[in-house]
Design a protein that fits this description.
about 5% helix; mainly beta; 6-stranded antiparallel β-sheet
Length: about 400
């Protein structure tokens, strides 16, 4: 049977104690007197709460709460009453998004010429070669940007050549929706000689039939410097109806005029938004980020929590002594921030915390900043209140975190 977790009636305490009880074991040598201390998992929060004097009409809320706990069997959300609000700037982004490109990090590429061992990143799709040779030159990460480097060379037999970031009918879409494409790019070799332009595009794909509508934005200032391009489009009405969307990078060419250019492309992001948001890394499946500060990646453990969706380059979003809480598969956990924390230019922040994570929160778990709490239980099975001849009630009780 699931035990309901109650909420404290209020935090109007006359006195409180709140702190962390570590789980250690001490070994003392009977011969030398030296001491060794073993730190074990299981540090837990402990609290003592003293209520102000109350008349029965106000105290009945506490009587109801305490009797429902049934001694140490029940559970409630406990917290530090003097630190319910963080002192940091708490500059959080209110955006939510999904990267519909399953492999925006461009992983899985294999160096070599197309058809002779060279492979695009997993899930990416070549367009028609149109007389050109296409070659994967390298892949990796540079300046924090995961990328693949692609060379196009030869004499074109058509006016375009494209690299698509998904298959044509893998991302459902409908007319009237706003979509935004974002990429990082640079030119690492060759030149723009005989090339009309290099573009990123968003394509509407009909439920039946060919691509119905293409909308492109030119990639300017092509050189060996990483740049970012964002391109938005509202999908128009088509017949047959639009059923899918995809995006790509393509070269506009002149038939019979030879070219040789090498492009590095990375951080590919396609989202259903009217403007771009911070890049969501993907390397095998689509990934979403909800509004507010969120856990950045699953399988985290230890004393540092990676988070994102803060406002970019925000100083001191959290300060030493602030609390955060997380809902994990093992229940809610409470942590103190032990270093001042700022966000980077992608809105990410690594938060140093105590105690360390006991269970890994799921990717995109909300970081609870307002009224952070943990699951606690009464230390004593017997809770008794006092009253005097004027009908004034008094009570204090102790609690300990349960997990």
């Amino acid at each position: 049977m699931t035990v309901p977790i109650l909420t404290l009636p209020n935090s109007a305490f006359t006195r409180s104690q709140f702190g962390l009880k570590s789980n250690t074991q001490v070994f003392k040598s009977p011969l030398t007197g030296t001491t060794q201390t073993l730190e074990r998992p299981g540090a837990r929060w402990v609290a003592e709460y003293a209520l102000p004097p109350m008349k029965r009409a106000q105290f009945c809320e506490w009587q109801s709460f305490l009797t429902q706990l049934r001694g140490g069997a029940g559970r409630f959300y406990g917290y530090d009453p003097d630190a319910k609000t963080a002192r940091g700037s708490i500059l959080i982004s209110s955006t939510s998004s999904t990267n519909y490109i399953a492999n925006g990090d461009a992983v899985g590429a294999r160096v070599g010429v197309e058809g002779a061992g060279g492979l695009l990143p997993t899930g990416w799709v070549w367009g028609l070669a149109n007389g050109l040779t296409r070659e994967i030159i390298s892949s990796g990460t540079q300046n924090g940007i995961p990328f693949v480097e692609i060379r196009f060379y030869g004499t074109p037999t058509n006016t375009t050549v494209a690299t698509n970031f998904t298959a044509s009918k893998s991302i459902p879409a409908s007319s009237g929706e706003d979509w935004t494409s974002s990429i990082a790019y640079k030119m690492t070799g060759g030149s723009l000689s005989n090339i009309v332009g290099v573009y990123q595009r968003i394509e509407q794909v009909q439920i039946t039939g060919p691509t119905a509508n293409m909308n492109a934005k030119e990639l300017f200032s092509l050189d060996n410097t990483w740049r970012y391009s964002h391109h938005s489009k509202t999908l128009t009405v088509t017949s047959p109806a639009t059923g899918f969307v995809r995006n790509s990078v393509y070269l506009s060419l002149t038939i019979g005029q030879p070219i040789d250019i090498t492009l590095a492309i990375g951080r590919v992001h396609l989202e259903r938004n009217s403007t771009n948001t911070v890049y969501i890394p993907t390397s095998g499946q689509q990934r979403s980020r909800s509004a507010g500060a969120r856990v950045d990646g699953g399988m985290q453990i230890g004393g540092t929590l990676k988070t994102w969706n803060w406002q970019a380059n925000a100083a001191n979003v959290l300060l030493k002594g602030d609390y955060i809480a997380l809902d994990t598969p093992n229940g809610r956990s409470l942590h103190m921030v032990v270093n001042n924390t700022s966000s980077d230019n992608d809105g990410r922040a690594a938060i140093a915390i105590e105690p360390p994570l006991r269970a890994s929160p799921l990717d995109d778990t909300k970081v609870i900043i307002e009224n952070p709490s943990c699951v606690m239980a009464l230390v004593e099975d017997s809770i008794q209140w006092q009253t005097d001849e004027t009908g004034i009630y008094r009570l204090s009780f102790a609690a300990e975190e349960r997990f």
